[in-house]
Amino acid sequence: MGAYLDRIDAAPASERWRLVRGLMYGEPQPFFAELRAERPVLELPDLTIVTRFADCALTLRRHQDFGVDLYRPKQGDYFMAQDDTADHWRDKSIMRAILDFEQVPRMRAHVGDTARDILREAGGAIDAPKRLTRAVPISLVKTFFGFDDADDEQLFDWSYWNQQDAFHNQFFDAIVTPDPQKIVRERERANTELALFTARVMAKRSVAVKLGFGGDDSISRLIHLSFSGGVNFPLKKVLFNAGGLLIGAVETTSHAVNNALAELLKRPDVLDRARAAAASPDAQAFDGFVFEALRFNPAFPYFFRTCHRRTVMSAGTPEARAVEPNATVLAVTHSAMFDEAAFEEPDRFDEARSQADAFTFGQGLHECLGRVIAQAMIPEVVRQCLLLPNLRAEGPVRFEGGVPESFPLRWG
């Protein structure tokens, strides 16, 4: 048996998850390789961890068998906290429609202009999360989603605490979260403020829509749809889903941009090719560098689900194990993206690699709602950084609460 598994088996049961989590973040590739080869279904006292591509894909795609139960206490009736329901299908379809993907080229141009202006004003040095990687998606939210009257700090605050509670404040996060209840209180406070603000925006937009002056931002489109009566989408749903647009846009974008930048900056050979591609007139020729970097350094190394039906993982292999109902499953997609059964030469950085089976934006029913927008926004922010002369990291990415809080960059 491998050295990592020997350490885990020798540890007291109560300490195994702490040890495993440390290895997942501290020594991911050798640790995951050992798990995939020897124990792809790792059973801990309160968690079942799966690491092979087939098992991770099964967990995320079979929403009848593996649900998002742990989202519900955090997100209530929001459609992303539901699985195969009428609200989920209708609301997600509406939200995808009103995002108007035909606007993506305009959005990318806006992101590029905003990032370039911020970097120009920075004068050769910047702390990326504090001044760039959150500011750019906030600008996009204000310009395209209908939050133009909001204060930037408020938008960040409302998004941040919702993301913290949903994704970094589950029961298995208690070993690294000093005050879980504080996060819950902050999320509740943020949601109250966000609801009051969004209600004021909706009132203003509703008058404009009734007078025939409604804009083409996302909130106005939702109000148009609600007033039409053509579908079951009352104003309460407009309020709820408009807030979801903000919450999903800011912190995840910031996290992905910082991780991708950090990965590229530590690979000198890749960095030279990436800089050349960044300078190409075809901006999308650069994007593969960012998504391959996120395969090596993803913002979310795992997704969590609750088992609803007894399911055999790694079926047909000597490592097969059954997962029983009510078990919490971590699909470690960081590991899955290095499984040779799904990715050819996974240890090689290949910017031309197909990302169709990657888990960067999730998979299955709960794939990222704004995937197409994120696929333009994230690489464009990174591209603007790599266009700077002699860009370099002055230190590592510093994480707090599971997200990047500091990443000092310098150039020129």
From TrEMBL:
Keyword Heme set for record: yes
Full protein name: Cytochrome P450
The protein's required cofactors: heme
Family: Belongs to the cytochrome P450 family.
Gene3D superfamilies: Cytochrome P450
UniProt keyword annotations, A-Z: Heme, Iron, Metal-binding, Monooxygenase, Oxidoreductase
GO molecular-function terms, A-Z: heme binding; iron ion binding; monooxygenase activity; oxidoreductase activity, acting on paired donors, with incorporation or reduction of molecular oxygen
Top-level lineage group: Bacteria
